[in-house]
Design goal:
The structure holds 2 protein chains of 2 kinds.
Chain A: H1 2-6, H2 10-15, E1 31-42, E2 49-60, E3 64-68, H3 75-82, E4 90-102, E5 109-113, H4 119-125, E6 130-133, H5 137-140, H6 147-158, H7 164-177, H8 194-205, E7 212-216, H9 224-241, E8 244-249, H10 252-258, E9 261-266, E10 269-275, H11 276-281, H12 286-292, H13 333-337, E11 343-344, E12 351-352, H14 372-387
Parallel strand pairs in A: 3-8, 3-9, 6-7, 7-8
Antiparallel strand pairs in A: 1-2, 1-4, 4-5, 9-10, 10-12, 11-12
Helix pairs in contact in A: 6-7, 7-8
Chain B: E1 11-23, E2 32-45, E3 49-54, H1 61-68, E4 76-81, E5 84-86, H2 94-99, E6 100-103, H3 107-110, H4 117-127, H5 132-145, H6 152-155, H7 164-176, E7 182-186, H8 194-210, E8 214-219, H9 222-228, E9 231-236, E10 239-245, H10 248-251, H11 256-264, H12 301-305, E11 310-314, E12 317-320, H13 336-343
Parallel strand pairs in B: 3-8, 3-9, 6-7, 7-8
Antiparallel strand pairs in B: 1-2, 1-4, 4-5, 9-10, 10-12, 11-12
Classes of the chains: A alpha/beta, B alpha/beta.
């Protein structure tokens, strides 16, 4: 689908600079993004704060990676750094972010190391291959331009061969895709509701049929009904166009519904990575468990929930050892001294950074960390099942 | 209302309405347009109980809270506080402010950044007549009540040195330090980090029980309302569309808007269930008939012409919808079971 749509623009792509990374692999790799040992600092010298620490993940074509975490966990910094949108004093200290996209002719792939890429390459990659939807659509759309102009400018810049009529047709097509009528093109942003503006942002992000769309809390400012519509639409669009998605939010229950894989970040590091349902059914990291228990449920008997004690960490004064140790209910002596690294668990492909799961650890894993859902809700589940 | 009739309501709203008049754009120079922010809302707050108001942005829930705090003057309707009827034109005295306190949404914005926490707690105390010798102790005591312990650690710090959750606790302490009877909390957790939200909710619940506060909890998060509140009220476009006690409103939503709201909440437990699909696109709110009719999947002819009645489906469970009336029985397609229960009343 994407190759077909892009074929008419291939002469323009060829005219641009050659890719930085090694190109033309034999078989197209399933990975669209591979992030390796990625670290980001704010500031340098004594004032430096590390916002993202040694992050590794890869994202497969057409999959959704959910990034969950609270404010200050580094989730936004991570994706801004990957897309090279990070501004000073943010500095990428180390790491690589390899973007792998299929060539327009459908044979082979092209690789870009986004960390090393120069402005010219970035210009080629951005929007065409990677696009971003920001949280506040009102701030992202120019208030004095009609919606039509926003689409026009993207298409003019990246698809110079398109005529005015073609651009207009493409804009209408994009708006229809996100469920907006044609007449919205002539509106100003303030004339649209919050949900409509966010839809325009999504349509803009998909304008050049990207391989990867990054969503930074796109529904946080919207009410739940609008959020539900947009999530449904995103699922629909993704199955039609097959783009991969990184979805950032603090709402873990939303991610469980939407994402294939979820990474949970705390104080700049990934503390757990698992498939969405595994993470929900049986979180391995105490922080994930706490986050999941922080959302009051819609079903079952009302019972006291505790959430997570303490406050989110100050990145400038992280505790020694595990950064979650000061808030962790299962804290051990070792957690206060040594910082755990992300290890793969034996039984499946998931990863967790917690001493409780260290092979040969003396401590037994608390029952909540092996089967949260069954432990907490089995009774109420049965009750609701019977009543139905 | 069975379980609440033991004590009279502490603060009641009687048919409160508030209109805002704006200039109509693109019309004649003197054309006016009236927005009905809150229309004919009645509710009761009781000692030791949490009442939650759930609604999306623009549903009028914040204007309602400000009317209850008497910061916004109602266009019509009365307040009844502790047996005294208050008309809109009555002047608000200091004593009312001491009894009914408001906690705002954003603690980063509602606490003066250039003064230490001590100042922010002592100022209301001085205004409300505490002597200079007492204020330090009272301010410390207020912090202890919101579990910022020991208070000395926080009193001389500045707002930027505290986290969002701690600041919201300060803002609750500020409201509590004048010993109010009613606490109006306007989205107290929506600006906070997920992991500290429950702490604030549990704090409110604890204060409600231990100090016999009447709490109005305003939110857009229906799950947190279910968790916290003794009575849940759903507002849409300035009107109350459904209200019920305990968890029954979320467990058995009767009004189509509440059903849409509940079905829209991310719920990993219900991944396989079919989602409600209706006319979701936020359209112009109807000015005649039911406000929700343009979006309602069950809208009938009568909904577009006449305002729906309040129907009591179960004791205390009231829904404002034509679907619950006998006349509508014939045209029911969805939710027949619930309406049958209600139709007998």
């Amino acid at each position: 689908m994407s190759a077909l749509e892009r074929s008419d623009e291939s002469p323009q792509v060829d005219a641009l600079a050659a890719p930085v990374g090694p190109a033309e692999k034999e078989a197209p790799s399933p990975f669209v993004l591979d992030v390796h040992d990625f670290s980001v600092d704010y500031g340098v010298g004594t004032q430096m704060v590390t916002a993202v620490r040694d992050v590794n993940f890869s994202l497969q074509r057409s999959k959704v990676l959910g990034v969950a975490g609270e404010s200050g966990s580094g989730k936004s910094t991570l994706v801004y750094a990957i897309t090279r949108l990070l501004r000073a004093p943010g500095v990428i200290r180390s790491g690589s972010a390899i973007l792998r996209v299929a060539l327009p002719d459908g044979h082979g792939v092209e690789e870009f190391d986004l960390v090393q890429a120069d402005e010219r390459t970035l210009r080629r990659v951005r929007w065409s291959h990677v696009s971003v939807v920001l949280q506040s659509a009102l701030n992202a759309l120019n208030p004095v331009l009609r919606i039509r102009r926003e689409f026009d400018e993207v298409l003019k810049t990246h698809r110079a061969s398109m005529t005015k009529t073609q651009r207009r047709e493409r804009s209408v097509e994009l708006l229809r895709m996100v469920g907006l009528s044609e007449d919205r093109l002539d509106r100003f942003p303030h004339e649209l509701s919050g949900g409509q503006r966010q839809r325009v942002m999504i349509a803009l992000a998909l304008a050049l049929d990207p391989d990867l769309v990054i969503m930074d809390e796109p529904t946080t400012a919207l009410d739940v009904v609008t959020q539900r519509e947009i999530i449904n639409e995103l699922n629909d669009l993704r199955s039609r166009f097959g783009f991969a998605m990184i979805f950032i939010t603090h709402d873990l229950s939303l991610l469980v519904e939407l994402a294939d894989d979820i990474v949970v970040m705390y104080a700049g590091a990934i503390v757990e990575r698992a498939s969405a349902l595994e993470l929900y059914d049986a979180p391995r990291h105490p922080y994930t468990l706490g986050l999941l228990n922080s959302f009051p449920p819609l079903h079952g008997a009302r019972q006291e929930l505790t959430g997570i004690p303490g406050s989110p960490p100050d990145l400038a004064q992280l505790p020694a050892g595990c950064s979650f140790s000061t808030r962790c209910p299962f804290v051990m002596e070792r957690c206060r001294r040594e910082s755990p690294t992300l290890i793969s668990l034996d039984d499946d492909h998931r990863q967790v950074a917690c001493w409780l799961h260290e092979p040969g650890a003396s401590a037994t894993v608390p029952v909540e960390l092996s089967q949260r859902r069954r432990a907490a809700t089995s009774d109420s589940d049965l009750a609701t099942a019977e009543s139905k | 209302m069975s379980d609440v009739a033991t004590s009279p309501a502490l603060l009641s709203a009687r048919s409160l309405s508030r209109d805002f008049t704006t200039r109509a754009a693109g019309r004649f120079w003197n054309a006016k347009r009236v927005t009905h922010a809150v229309e004919d809302v009645s509710l009761d707050l009781y000692q030791g109980r949490v009442t939650a108001i759930v609604g999306e942005s623009g549903s009028g829930k914040s204007v309602l809270a400000r009317m209850l705090a008497r910061i916004v003057t109602p266009t019509s309707g009365q307040l009844v506080f502790d047996g005294t009827t208050i008309e809109p034109h009555h002047k608000r005295g200091l004593d009312y402010a001491a009894q009914v306190q408001l906690v705002l949404q954003d603690p980063f914005a509602s606490i003066n950044p250039i003064h230490p926490i001590r100042h922010c707690l002592e100022r209301p105390l001085l205004i409300h007549g505490a002597t200079k010798d007492d204020v330090a102790a009272l301010a410390g005591a207020a912090l202890t009540r919101v579990a910022l312990d020991p208070p000395e650690r926080f009193l001389d710090r500045y707002p930027h040195e505290l986290s969002g959750g701690q600041l919201q606790r300060v803002s609750i302490a500020r409201a509590l330090c004048v010993r109010p009877k009613v606490l109006l909390a306007d989205e107290p957790i929506s600006m906070l980090d997920v992991s500290v939200r429950l702490g604030i909710l549990n704090l409110l619940k604890g204060l409600c029980v231990s100090e016999q506060l009447a709490i109005l909890y305003i939110t857009h998060d229906i799950a947190s309302a279910r968790y916290l509140a003794d009575e849940v009220i759903v507002m849409y476009a300035g009107q109350i569309v459904e209200r019920s006690f305990g968890t029954s409103l979320v467990d058995e939503p009767a009004h189509p808007y509440t059903q849409l709201l509940v079905a829209s909440v991310p719920d990993p437990e219900a991944l396989d269930e079919a989602r409600v699909v209706g006319q979701h696109e936020k359209l112009e709110v109807a000015t005649v008939g039911c406000r929700f009719a343009p979006r309602c999947p069950h809208a009938m002819e009568v909904c577009r012409t006449t305002s729906p009645p309040n129907v009591e489906l179960a004791p205390g469970h009231v829904s404002r919808c034509w679907l619950h009336t006998r006349e509508a029985h014939a045209s029911l397609r969805v939710n027949a079971r619930r309406v049958d229960e209600g139709g007998d009343i």
